[in-house]
TrEMBL record:
Highest taxon in the source lineage: Bacteria
UniProt name for this protein: Polymerase
Keywords assigned: Membrane, Transmembrane, Transmembrane helix
Transmembrane portions of the chain: 56-79, 91-111, 123-139, 146-166, 186-209, 216-233, 263-279, 357-381, 393-412
Amino acid sequence: MEWVVYLLLALPLLVSAGLAVLLVLLLLACHASVLAGMWLVAATSLLQTVTGNAPVLHLGLALFPGDLMSLVLAPVAALRLLQQSHRCRGAWGWWVFSAAVFVSLGTGLLSFGTTAGVQARDYVHFVLVGTYLLSFEYDEQLVARLCRVLGGLVLALVLLTFYRWIVYYTPIPSLLPPGGVYNIDGAMRVVWSNDALLMGLVLIGLTFFTELTAPARRPWVSVMVLLAMVLLLQHRSVWMAVLVGATGPLIAGGQASAAMKRLALFAGVFLLILAPVFLSERSAGLASELQSRTSSALSAQGSASDRLQGWTAMMTKWAQGGPQVLALGNSFGTPNTRFIVSSEGEMRKVDYFAHNMYVQTLFNTGLAGISGFLALLWTLLAGLRKEAADPRLAAECRMLFVFVLMIAVYLIPYGVHHVQGLVIGAGILCARAAERQTLPGRRGARHAG
């Protein structure tokens, strides 16, 4: 049994060597194929949801799943852009926004240390994923690959959601997380809002762009399941994004009559799913909760009121910061402290994220960062809508137009997430390819394979 002792002694070295080999293989795969990078991003998102975004590695600093993903994608993106520097041209809003994020991060690290890195983490992951995608050329399969990756990720999230609902409502105490709930803001909210948004994106894709997302089968069962889940997860911001996505095809270019037919079908499925919730006695509690959340959102009460006050306070703090802060913002790491008046009339001190990507971006990157991002959204949406007239890319441009529009709406109460970088990056590449009319054929498109 002496060999067992030697094996145990060598085990840490074997594990380290295995991780090193895995890292090299990931680097090579992501450099060679955009699909590998997309699956890495999707796997990272799923791991974050499953673990509650807990640290997965401690090397003096706590490394989270997104940090490990960035350690792979950052050098790959940098190397590819150095090899093909012409791909940096265009999308100037993206580069201005990205530069503003890293400038704020750099000054924040000097002033506040690792606190700046913690605050900037989601921005950095989002920028790196988008930049990684921009290091590839567009080809005919890019959007199809994106649909496959988003579909696979959403399928895993749906299964995870069902599992957590079963565990919570059965209940099975031994499988519940510490505290007995997955989300203190609501028992039904067993996954995060960005996960629900991904379900919403796939829902809209299956409803209005079947030729891209499900060309060989009828997707209406999946549509009904996803619509029910989006409703039951009760993320009001996702409801608004899905509503915008459902009407988006009407302004995305192309045939409005076809979009109207799909919209009517979508409304019918919506009513078919929602009616039992409000008519069944067993689901009276759920119906009451849905009504309560909807009415509070429309009347700007509860969390909506808190957020509005917080946005005003943070914008006031930014406006009083002087010329440098106006231009470049408060460095990441700067406290988000602000005071709000609760519905009971009590003054409360809060210091969490602004619950608005645009306000937070203005606060941390100033006019430079927010101008770059808004310019990106404007030119991207305009470009995708314009190029929807190209018969080769009409469906792809329309779908990405709607997806980007949904993300833009979702960012009003929430922040960026790295999976959104895939959609933004694909949108930029698609609009650029249609504009330049240089779409490579299937045989010649090796760069994104």
